Amino acid sequence: YDLQNKKATFGNRPVITDGSMKIIANQVNTDDSTGVSVLTGNAVFTDTAQGLMMLGNYIISNRNTGSM
């Protein structure tokens, strides 16, 4: 995790929970300064507040706009 630039890369199929959102993928790249996360490889995006579950090989999520 790069604290100065607020960016992180996680491999080895991390499970990341942030409030009602949960993401799982082979690799997750996050940029907290923009709110964008890129999930690659058997990705699962779940948002229990919106009743949403998405499966894909490549997912881009923008926490700031609520869009994918």
Estimated helix fraction: under 10%
Element order, helices and strands?
A: EEEEEE
- Enumerate how many helices there are, as a single number: 0
Number of strands: 6
The global form is globular
Low-confidence runs of at least 5 consecutive residues: none
Kindly state the mean pLDDT as a whole number?
91
Return the structural class: mainly beta
Structural write-up:
The protein is mainly β and 68 residues long. Helix content is 0%, strand content 59%. The protein has no helices and six strands. Strands 1, 2, 3, 4, 5 and 6 form a six-stranded antiparallel β-sheet that branches. The chain is globular and about 35 Å long.
Topology:
Blueprint: E1 7-10, E2 15-18, E3 21-24, E4 27-31, E5 36-47, E6 52-62
Question: What attributes does this structure have?
Answer:
68 residues; mainly beta; six-stranded antiparallel beta sheet
Quick summary of this structure?
0% of the residues lie in helices and 59% in strands. The protein is built from no helices and six strands.
